[in-house]
Amino acid sequence: MDSSPGKVQRELDRRIEVIRTDEAADPSRRALSTGDLALYVGTTVLICVLGVLVMVL
Hints:
Blueprint: H1 5-23, H2 34-56
């Protein structure tokens, strides 16, 4: 890939435009809801606690 500043800037502009137009409305790009975030954090904490228990025992 040619790394000349102009070409890099054009590629970045193109990617930003793709994200803004095509991916912005994608449901997978939305922020996590409070319930989803709580489930994610709870699962992560549970896995860490189980890992600590395995190391201790």
